[in-house]
Every structure is written in structure tokens, then in C-alpha cells.
Write a structure and sequence with these properties.
CATH superfamily of one domain in chain B: PurM-like C-terminal domain
Strand order of the largest sheet of chain B: 10-12-9-13-11-14-15
Order of helices and strands of chain A: HEHEHEHEHEEEEHEEEH
Distance between the termini of chain A: 16 Å
Structural class of chain A: alpha/beta
CATH architecture of one domain in chain B: Alpha-Beta Complex
Number of helices of chain B: 26
CATH class of one domain in chain B: Alpha Beta
CATH architecture of chain A: 3-Layer(aba) Sandwich
Radius of gyration of chain B: 27 Å
Number of strands of chain B: 30
CATH topology of one domain in chain B: Phosphoribosyl-aminoimidazole Synthetase, Chain A, domain 2
Oligomer: heterodimer
Distance between the termini of chain B: 64 Å
Shape of chain B: globular
């Protein structure tokens, strides 16, 4: 028991920020609630000369990295494009090595967009964790605008994705809030890529309605192909999703929308909500590899 | 000699001859420089410079124009606000009215900070930019107190959306264009800075056709020990200006906001609208909160109305000092700006902090780390004068007390007496179903989800009750939002309310009714009303009738607030919301804040379970003044629903106690549209219906269904507890009736010789499409 707790304290997770990322506080809070060390780290702390010694950081300081939600650099061009360009210019090699070594990388919402722009997802090639050019895009929602709503996600991963290993084949409720979340592949490759994702067990979450069926808008809030809400890379250690598990971390986050058949959300009996499993699985995995 | 004399300098500078100017010339000076000061005010300036023995530079007159504007010094409203509202003190209020935002105790360690402002004139000219910078400004007001913003609210008011372009008064933009632009502006700014927009309201009426109103409020949370005053800490401290560059955008914003809009405002005043940049604001907020947390600064003030000209003087004077500023160190967007433009520019995302000299390097490091430009632009000094230098020349030297001694007026007013007849009798509708349907799809009643969903109301993961709640993708309107600001279970509830139809008919009772609605919403979610702030939007105060509306409204606020012992902790007055076409309806927008000890006890607004009992709490009377019923049936009514703080207090206490004694499944206040709309909304949120029997209640059916009497709620409770719940209320002097039960899919209402049946699917469609039939989805 003592040994396990020691290990927990060794786990350090960085939530990367630049101007305009804005979900880092709640993401750090979720991780800290599970007993690990987590901090929001500005990208400049990895490379900039002006940073004080005490605030300088290396990727190798951490055993997990999260790209949080937000509007990095304003997202005035394609969402996530600027953050990913900066990462590529200063951290590309380090990040590739980090992924190759099997450390987990999670991207939530804008973080998913960043991982796609980086070429880390869909991540078909294990030897090249960051592809030369992006192989998919998170396009503008079919509704052509930002939308904030709850979504229902069916977990379909068979064990590849290390972030959902503690989750069975079930439906979870996470909020979505984005303008660019429609999973889109090059039209000529769409069938091929979807088949490959299915075969490789890279599909993690798909949008469903309250009966558990793959349904259209608003259940699929953005028009994603194959109702895809989240995917992992071929190795299973890089995971991106548009919905926000950190906004469903505590039971009281679910207070104002009932589960199917629920009369009350039983918030008093259980402290954690349906989003906890993502962070817990990440931590359990790190504990195993450390 | 010419009145305006160009001074020899490497930049544009004029000296203005006020000493030898007669009244007519003084007025001309005010007009030509865009000072918006009247002759009396100009004479005071003339006397001041006569005693100094020199004429002023343009920058000095501009500074006075800013400082003495209605917007900055509240010259028309102060007298009445002091008399009626600012006299209530509660021991948990840490700071009210004096600073940029109110500060109120939240728990032992924390305080919540609240600010509320209008951004009306800019939004009427440039809806997207005006609304966005409104959000930017209100965030600064909260951050400059040392608080982390946690929620935004946005009450909006527009003309009716169905007006044809041919009927629009000249120079007026279509309300649909304004609505879309304003919502997009709030969305793109609020979502980008990562602060949830959790509450608000939208109201349509043609009195807002030529003057839309955009009110924005913000709540923040701070450790008590980190609250930063808006003043310097001592002599010899440095002023550090941080944030965006200073440009020509937003020049004369406050003087523009202190006069009526006219046909040509578009061309003349677009430069008064600032340009917002949320991606400068986001790191600026982080940097400011980091220097607060590290205790590196003595004071902080945001640059809002009047720009540097207001901020520097106020920070120095409030601490009992003077200041010396060098404009060379202000980073500019355009090199050729005249010094007066630099001094009064309202460019966005700027913050002014005072720092002890030994800590200035550390402060500059933090800003640099966040890529936020920051520069030392001056220092405080013992003598209470303000000196400004530019390129080696002294161009400004005045006593700060003179600059900030804006005039205060006790403007004459005429109170409006509503045309009330002793016995007002409205007719029942010829077709109840038709009237009910028209009420449901009236844009003031119908679902606002087209707007609400464009705002991120969940970022920061602390929103417990959202503005939309219920079964996923079938959500209904909530009463108040609930936020959990710290690690403890304690929460804050937030609502924004005003009923402009009621205030138009009767400013006094309409305001009291709006206050009642604010309280009802806070109580409905099971929170204790704790404080409120107001944003008072009125027409031209120089017109006695407009001033009368203002005074009546403020009197009613004072009456309700003191009766309930609810402190007003901050606020804003916006006059001159008037054009030659019309003035706005008296619009005292109220933002109520409540506390809830454990957010897990918050009560939602949608029905939970078939078979549960439905209880009506409160008294229903024939009160239709300003009601949706009178609007859709075209019957005039002048009797605005009454309320009283004593009765309201009794109901608050009783309801909150009942929530402890009984397991309440849902609760919703009764407001626009009356009882039947409240029940419909509760059903929509979980695709349930209701079987209602009104026989036990006295009065006409249409009164029971559509009256908008105050101090009423609908409560859902289990069948087995229903009788005890009713007895509990009755025994404490309140009225309560068991109305019926939650049912599967129809709304069915019965009374003597009366039956109304409608499929809830149809109810939902009408309610959901009431607004989107104009906006498109």
C-alpha cells in the first residue's frame, strides 16, 4: 500500500497553456483530487530565455501531458493551428520521444484540435508519433456556430486506449462546447481511415442518443463522421476528445440533467462524476509504467 | 486673437483661450472639442484658469470633459442614489459603491466581487465590438479588485424582431442585426477568455428600437487578504501601465455615452467604440492575478471610461497624493497621436498598477512572462497635483481635487402617475387555447436557447445549475444559475431581472415587481438572497419626465431593499438612452446574488416524476399591468402587480424553511405569462405534462391562468408529502394550494365549466420556436 502511494506522489502531470487556453485550472484540479502532482505550465517555460531558473521546465520532468480546452492564441485561424505550430517549432523532438516511450498525452476539446494539427492523431504510424502533415481535421460544426450542450458518449474501445481502461462498454455524459468539432477525413480516404480506426481499436467514444443509438443532431452536436467524439493513436497512449470530462468530474456537475430513468441525480452519495474515469485511468497507467 | 492657438512643439498641442471667452465662445469650445460640458461647467473652468493666470492646453480641457461627464461622475443620479439606495449597511459587505466593484464576504477566507455596467451606446453603433468590449470592461472591473472572474451575465433589450426594414427610423439598425451582433460579440469574447456566461435575459419592445440596451455583469471570487484597493499605497510609488497598446479607438467614449444618440451618430461616433481583443485580456487577467497572489502591488485600477485621464488621478487622489506622468512611456498603436488622445483613449485590455520601486522589476517580469507589455509611466508625489509631460514638455498641471470635483445636480422631475381606474376589469379571452399558444411563442416568453447555447456556460467546471436544465437536449429555462466558486460546498446563485412593460406603465410598482422577481428566482433554487447590484438605464435626465421615471424607480428599489435588508453593493447609471424617435422604457436591470450552503441542495426547475403533486405557493389576483396577457390580447391594463417587502420576506423565510423540511423535486417562479406558462416550462424540461384542477382557487379562470401577480412559485413534491407541505405554509401565514399532478404527455387544465387540453409536444414546439422563427436556427 505504502509503495503505491509513494508512486502516486512521483507522478507529475503538466497541463500546457499559452494565451487563450482556458480549461487548465479545472483540469489541474481534477488531477490533484486524485492525489497526483499536476501543474499548469506555460509553453514558454520549456524554452524561453526570459524565464527564471526556478520556473524553467523540461518535458522529461513529467510522466503525462494534457493539452487543455480553450481558444489557444484566439483560434483565429484553424482551431489549434497556432499552438501546434509553436509546439512543433520548439518541442517537436521531445514530444515525439515522450510519446514513443509510451507516456500518455491527452487533448480535450481545443487540446484534441491541437493533437490533430500536430499530426499526433489519428496517429496510425507507431514509429512516427507525429505525422508530417495532419491526416484529419476538426471542421466547423454543421450548425456553423459555437454550441454548448450536454452529450452522451458510448464507449467503444476494446482496451487499446489507456485513458478508458477503467470504463466498460457504457454510455457517459460529458458536456461539449465548441465551434470546430466535426471529425472530417479527406473524402477519398474516409472509408479507409474509419476501417483502419475500427480495426486498430482506435475509436474511443461515439455520440449516441438516450436510447444508445447513433443519432444525428443534436445528439451528434457537430456532424462528426461515424459519430466520432474521441479517438486514440495506434499505440493507445495519445487520446483526443471534443467533450469535456473535467466538467463532469464531480457528481454535482451532473446535478441539473438526469440520467435516463433517473428521478434525481444522486449527488449526495457519490463525490465523483462520470468524467473521473479518464483521469483515473491515466494515473493508473502511469503508475504501471513508472 | 484666435481661441485655439497651436503651440510650437514636436507634436500636436493647442492652447485654448478660455480666460477672455464669453459664454457663447465657451459653448463653442465645448462643442468643437467634443467635451459635452455646458456653459455653467465651462465658466467654472474659466474661473479656475483665471486664478492660475494661464490658459489651458487641449489635454487639460479634455481631461475635465471626461471627469465631469455623466458617465464618470454621476452628476444627475448621485443625489437620489444617496438618498434612497446607498444608505443600507450590512456587516458582511466589505466594500460597496466606492470602488470599481462591490466586495462582499463569502466565507471566512473569501469574498465575492460583483460589478454591473451598461454598454448601450457603443452596441447600438457597432453591436459586435460594443458588446465584446462590454464584457472586456466588466472583467477588468472585477480583476482590478484582485478577484478571479467566475461568471458573466448579460441582460439584453432590443426592438421587436418583426419590424420591416422600411419602417426603421433613419440611422437605426435592424433589431435582428443588433441581436445577432451583440450575441456574437459576447460569445466570442466571453468564450475566449474562459469565463462562463451563466445568466441573463432578453426582452423585445419597440421602445428599444433606436436604443438597444446591452448590460453586462460579472462576479469574481478572491481571498479576502488579496483584495486590492483602487489607489496607490504611498509617495514615490511607480505607476505601471500593463496590457494592450493605446490607440485612437475609444476616444470620447464617455462623452458619447453621456448624450442622446442621433441619426448621424454612426458616422460621427464610430471612433468612440473600442476594439476588443480577448487574447490580450486572457493573459492580462492571469498576470494581474499572479502579481496579486505574490503581493507585489499596492493598488490596481482598470482603464475604462476616460482612460488614463481618470485612472491616474483617482488612484493618486484616493490615497491622498498627487502624480507625475510621462506619456513618452505609453506604448502606442499609432505614433502620431496627440498627447490629449493618449491621455483620454479608452483602448481596451489595459490595467494600471501602483508598485513600490523595489518590486517593480518583479512585476515587470511577471507581465513579460505572460507576453503582456508593461511600462513604468509615472510616480506618485506628495503634492496633490497632477503633472503630465510629453517629449520633455509639461503639458498638464492641475489640482486633482479640482479635476475630480465634478458637479452634482438635483435635477427637477415630474413623477408619472399611471392612468389607473378604480375598478379595472379585463375580459377573458374568447379562445383560451389560442391565447395560450400566442403567449408561449411570444419572444419575451419563448425559449432563449438559440442565444444561451452560443455562450459557454460551463467553462471553469463550477457551474452547478446552468441557464438550461433538464433532460439532455430537451432543457428548459432555469430560475437562477448556481456557481461553486471554491473547494467548499458553498455556492452563489445569480439572476438578472427587470420587467420593462411594467416599469413603462408604472416605474415605481414596475421596479418593485422586478425586485420581487429577482428574489423569487434566488429563492426558487434554494438560496438565501444576499446582495444585489443595479444597472439603471433611462432616457435624457434633463427632461423632467425622464428624471421622474428614474426617481420613482430608485425610490421603489430603496423601499424593497431596506424592507428586505438587502444591500446594494455596486451599480451603474446609464442616461441619455434616447433619440428623437423615442426614449427607452425605464429599465432598472437588477442582478441578484444569493448564497447556498451546499450546492448539492440546489433545486432545479423541471418536473421529475409522473404522479408527483404540483403546488401553487402565493396569492393570485387580477393584476395585468404590463402582462403578456394584456399584450397579446391587446387589452390595456394599468394595474401593475403589487408587492410588499414584508409579505415577500414572510414567503422567503417560509419557502426556505420548507425546502429544509421537505424533499422538493422542482421549483419554478411564476412570472411572464403567469401560472400556465410556469407549469408548461417545468414540463418541457423533462417531456412530462400536468393535470391541473383550479376549482379550489377563487376568481376568474383567465386570472388564475395568466395573471402575473408577484411572490408566487410552483413546487413539485411527492404525493405523500403534499398535504403536509401545504399545511406547513398555511400555518405560517402563506397561501398554498395543491393544483394537481405531474402527468405523462398532456397539459390538461380544468375548472368549473372549463377545460383546456393540449399535447405537450405542441407546447414545446411553440415555446422552442418562438424566437428561432426570427433568427433561424
Amino acid at each position: 500500500m505504502g509503495e503505491i502511494e509513494d508512486k502516486i506522489e512521483d507522478i507529475k502531470i503538466a497541463v500546457l497553456r499559452i494565451e487563450g487556453t482556458n480549461c487548465e485550472d479545472e483540469t489541474v484540479r481534477a488531477l490533484r483530487n486524485l492525489g497526483v502532482f499536476a501543474e499548469a505550465v506555460h509553453l514558454k517555460q520549456f524554452y524561453s530565455d526570459i524565464i527564471k531558473e526556478s520556473e524553467k521546465r523540461n518535458i522529461s520532468d513529467y510522466s503525462g501531458i494534457i493539452f487543455p480546452g480553450g481558444f489557444s492564441a484566439g483560434d483565429y485561424v484553424r482551431a489549434g493551428a497556432i499552438f501546434s505550430a509553436r509546439v512543433k517549432s520548439v518541442l517537436r523532438k521531445d514530444l515525439e520521444e515522450f510519446i514513443r516511450q509510451g507516456f500518455p498525452v491527452l487533448g480535450i476539446c481545443n487540446g484534441f484540435q491541437i493533437l490533430v494539427e500536430l499530426g499526433a492523431l489519428p496517429g496510425f504510424d507507431e514509429d512516427r508519433p507525429l505525422s508530417e502533415t495532419p491526416e484529419m481535421v476538426l471542421a466547423i460544426n454543421n450548425s456553423n456556430r459555437f454550441e454548448c450542450r450536454q452529450s452522451l458518449l458510448k464507449h467503444e474501445n476494446r482496451g487499446k486506449c489507456i485513458f478508458t481502461r477503467n470504463l466498460g462498454e457504457q454510455v457517459v455524459r460529458y458536456p461539449v462546447a465548441h465551434a470546430e468539432g466535426k471529425v472530417t477525413f479527406p473524402s477519398s480516404m474516409e472509408r479507409v481511415y474509419i476501417n483502419r480506426l475500427v480495426q486498430n481499436d482506435q475509436i474511443v467514444f461515439r455520440y449516441v442518443d438516450e436510447e444508445g443509438n447513433y443519432a444525428g443532431y443534436p445528439w451528434n452536436p457537430n456532424g462528426s463522421v461515424y459519430n466520432i467524439a474521441g479517438i486514440c493513436n495506434v499505440k493507445g497512449n495519445v487520446f483526443g476528445l471534443m467533450p469535456h470530462p473535467e466538467r463532469a468530474f464531480f457528481s454535482w456537475n451532473h446535478l441539473d440533467y438526469p440520467k435516463k430513468g433517473d428521478v434525481f441525480s444522486e449527488v449526495t452519495s457519490e463525490a465523483f462524476g462520470e468524467g473521473k474515469v479518464i483521469f483515473q485511468s491515466m494515473i493508473d497507467y502511469i503508475r504501471d509504467i513508472l | 486673437m484666435d481661441v485655439f492657438k497651436r503651440i510650437e512643439a514636436p507634436f500636436l498641442l493647442y492652447q485654448i483661450d478660455v480666460i477672455s471667452a464669453d459664454d457663447e465662445t465657451l459653448q463653442r469650445i465645448s462643442d468643437e472639442l467634443g467635451l459635452a460640458l455646458n456653459v455653467d461647467e465651462m465658466r467654472r473652468i474659466k474661473e479656475y484658469f483665471k486664478s492660475k493666470g494661464r490658459n489651458p492646453y487641449d489635454i487639460e480641457l479634455q481631461a475635465l470633459g471626461q471627469a465631469w461627464s455623466e458617465h464618470c461622475c454621476y452628476k444627475s443620479s448621485k443625489y437620489y442614489l444617496k438618498q434612497f439606495i446607498f444608505n443600507l449597511e450590512r456587516d458582511y459587505v466589505i466594500s460597496a459603491i466606492k470602488e470599481d466593484a462591490g466586495v462582499v464576504e463569502f466565507d471566512d477566507k473569501h469574498a465575492y466581487v460583483v460589478a454591473f455596467e451598461s454598454h448601450n451606446h457603443p452596441s447600438a453603433i457597432e453591436p459586435y465590438g460594443g458588446a465584446a468590449t462590454g464584457i472586456g470592461g466588466i472583467l477588468r472591473d472585477v480583476v482590478c479588485m484582485g478577484a478571479q472572474p467566475i461568471a458573466l451575465i448579460d441582460p439584453l433589450f432590443f426592438g421587436n424582431l418583426d419590424i420591416s426594414h422600411f419602417e426603421l427610423p433613419r440611422g437605426t439598425k435592424h433589431p435582428l442585426y443588433l441581436l445577432s451582433g451583440v450575441v456574437a460579440g459576447i460569445r466570442d469574447y466571453g468564450n475566449r477568455v474562459g469565463i462562463p456566461t451563466v445568466s441573463g435575459m432578453v426582452f423585445f419592445d419597440d421602445r428599444y428600437l433606436t436604443n438597444c440596451l446591452v448590460n453586462v455583469g460579472c462576479i469574481g471570487i478572491a481571498k479576502k487578504e488579496n483584495i486590492v484597493p483602487s489607489r496607490a499605497g504611498g509617495e514615490g510609488e511607480y505607476f505601471v501601465l500593463a496590457g494592450g497598446l493605446t490607440g485612437r479607438d475609444g476616444i470620447h467614449g464617455v462623452t458619447f455615452a453621456s448624450a442622446e444618440l442621433k441619426e448621424t451618430s454612426e458616422e460621427e461616433s464610430r471612433g468612440a467604440v473600442q476594439l476588443g481583443n480577448p487574447i490580450v485580456k486572457e493573459p492580462l487577467m492571469h498576470a494581474c492575478l499572479e502579481i496579486v497572489e505574490k503581493k507585489l502591488i499596492t493598488g490596481m485600477k482598470d482603464l475604462g471610461g476616460g482612460g488614463l485621464s481618470c485612472a491616474v488621478g483617482e488612484m493618486a487622489l484616493a490615497a491622498g497624493y498627487g502624480a507625475k506622468v510621462n506619456l513618452d512611456n505609453v506604448p502606442l498603436k499609432e505614433a502620431e497621436m496627440a498627447p490629449w488622445e493618449i491621455w483620454v483613449s479608452e483602448s481596451q485590455e489595459r490595467m494600471l498598477v501602483t508598485v513600490k520601486p523595489e518590486l517593480v522589476d518583479e512585476v515587470l517580469y511577471v507581465f513579460d512572462k505572460w507576453d503582456v507589455p508593461a511600462n513604468v509611466i509615472g510616480e506618485t508625489k506628495a503634492e496633490k497635483t497632477l503633472e503630465v509631460y510629453y517629449k520633455g514638455m509639461k503639458i498638464y498641471d492641475m489640482e486633482i481635487e479640482f479635476v475630480t470635483s465634478g458637479p452634482e445636480y438635483c435635477r427637477t422631475y415630474v413623477s408619472k402617475k399611471p392612468e389607473i381606474k378604480e375598478e379595472e376589469r379585463l375580459k377573458p379571452p374568447s379562445d383560451y387555447l389560442d391565447v395560450f399558444k400566442r403567449i408561449l411563442q411570444h419572444p419575451n416568453v419563448a425559449s432563449k436557447d438559440w442565444i444561451i447555447r452560443q455562450y459557454d456556460h460551463q467553462v471553469r467546471a463550477s457551474t452547478i445549475l446552468r441557464p438550461l436544465q433538464g433532460k439532455i437536449n430537451f432543457e428548459t429555462h432555469g430560475d437562477a444559475a448556481v456557481i461553486k466558486p471554491t473547494d467548499s460546498m458553498k455556492g452563489l446563485s445569480i439572476t438578472a431581472d427587470v420587467n420593462p412593460w411594467m416599469t413603462s406603465i408604472d416605474p415605481y410598482w414596475g421596479t418593485a415587481a422586478s425586485f420581487d422577481e429577482m428574489i423569487r428566482n434566488l429563492v426558487a433554487v434554494n438560496s438565501v438572497p444576499h446582495s444585489f447590484v443595479d444597472c439603471l438605464n433611462f432616457g435624457n435626465p434633463e427632461k423632467p419626465e425622464r428624471m421622474g421615471e428614474f426617481v420613482e424607480s430608485v425610490k421603489a428599489l430603496g423601499w424593497m431593499a431596506s424592507g428586505l435588508n438587502l444591500p446594494c453593493v455596486s451599480g451603474n447609471v446609464s442616461f441619455y438612452n434616447e433619440t428623437p424617435y423615442s426614449a427607452v422604457a425605464p429599465t432598472p436591470t437588477l442582478m441578484g446574488i444569493g448564497v447556498i450552503d451546499d450546492v448539492r441542495n440546489a433545486i432545479t426547475s423541471f418536473f421529475k416524476k409522473k404522479g408527483n403533486a404540483i403546488i401553487l405557493v402565493g396569492e393570485t389576483r387580477p393584476e395585468f399591468g404590463g402582462s403578456v396577457y394584456s399584450e397579446v390580447t391587446g387589452q390595456k391594463s394599468f394595474f401593475v402587480p403589487r408587492t410588499s417587502p414584508e409579505r415577500l420576506k414572510m414567503y422567503i423565510d417560509c419557502m426556505l424553511n420548507a425546502f429544509k423540511e421537505f424533499k422538493v423535486f422542482s421549483c419554478h417562479d411564476i412570472s411572464e405569462g403567469g401560472l400556465v406558462v410556469a407549469i408548461a416550462e417545468m414540463g418541457i424540461g423533462n417531456r412530462l405534462g400536468a393535470e391541473i384542477d383550479l376549482i379550489g382557487i377563487e376568481g376568474d379562470v383567465f386570472v388564475k391562468l395568466f395573471s402575473e401577480s408577484n411572490t408566487r412559485w410552483i413546487v413539485e413534491i411527492s404525493q405523500s408529502q403534499a398535504q403536509d407541505f401545504v399545511s406547513f405554509l398555511l400555518s405560517r401565514g402563506c397561501k398554498a394550494y395543491e393544483l394537481g399532478v405531474v402527468s405523462r404527455s398532456d397539459l390538461s387544465i380544468n375548472d368549473r365549466n372549463f377545460n383546456l387540453e393540449i399535447d405537450m409536444k405542441e407546447v414545446e414546439d411553440l415555446w422552442r420556436n418562438g424566437l428561432v422563427r426570427y433568427t433561424g436556427w
